[in-house]
Write a structure and sequence with these properties.
Pfam families: AP_endonuc_2. InterPro entries: IolE/XylAMocC-like, Xyl_isomerase-like_sf, Xyl_isomerase-like_TIM-brl. GO terms for molecular function: isomerase activity. Helix content is about 45%, strand content about 15%. By secondary structure, it is of the alpha/beta class. The protein has one domain (about 15-130, about 165-320): Divalent-metal-dependent TIM barrel enzymes (TIM Barrel), CATH 3.20.20.150. The longest helix has about 40 residues, at about 145-185. The radius of gyration is 19 Å and the shape is globular. The relative contact order is 0.12.
Length: about 325
Amino acid sequence: MNSSVPNPYDAFSFSTSWNVKRHAVGRDMIDEIRGLGFRRIELNYQVTAQHLETIEPMIESGLIEISSVHHVFPRTDDPEFGPDSLMLGHPDEAMRRQGVELLVQSAEYAARYGAKAVVLHPGEADIGPQFDAELKRLYREGLRESEAYADTWRRMLARRTEAAAPALHHMRDSLETVCDRLAVRGIRVAIGLETRARCHQLPMPAEAAEVIAGLAGAPVYLWVDSGHAIIMERMGLYDNTVDMVKYRHLIYGMHIHDTIGLVDHGCPYVHTQDVPGFERFLPAIAAAELKVYELKPNCTPEEIRISVQTLAARLQVLQEGAGV
């Protein structure tokens, strides 16, 4: 590559979600990602302590940089603290205390590796998955505009609104405890509250803004997952045109991928069916401190190359137009 031309991969980090299930040895997993052209890595919640035995020497030698880790880190097999759990908003105080301990642990690993952030699924409104499953069934059957969809959506929203309030209160209190403990230890990493892909999961951007406002300057931010946000908009919960402007100042990081129907983690510009829809995220991606590709395992190296080069070029045009 001509040294005068910016390397498009320098703008992004890349999540191990793409290949973590293919590798028992951490170094092999990271070498495959390095082979794509990335040097900065997000270690996701499926990375195990065994993986880390061969990844840590790569970090220590400066061969790679860790941009972020995804809570719970390293991997836990406890279903009470899996990626789809009540987590920091759990109604049981003892479970919340355990959730706090696990988040402190994830932040300690992030700090040890020189990462800037921990990405967090903070919890759910405790209404069960049935509304989300029914709404998605109706959507896939082409009934998005039907009365059946509208009725299910209204009932879901009423239940969600009621259940979200105490969960968000508990999340805020748990995050305050975590931030206080990290501050005492001199650990300075951002905590990113990730937007999710199911109707009962928290937080929506407005809910994240509410939690952040209640933490009075603590290092807690919004982490936007573009594919998840597209799904939630298609189901009627988000307005990404509005949200990506209104809450941009709260965004620390982005998980970058696109969605076909309700199937996410595809390569932007390769698997994108609605380019203008995806490009509503470009200003937020440009402004985000961390820009992390988070792709499904069957995205090929060539698809990833096309996506990265196209997105980097589109961001450069945007920044040049803004005089950046």
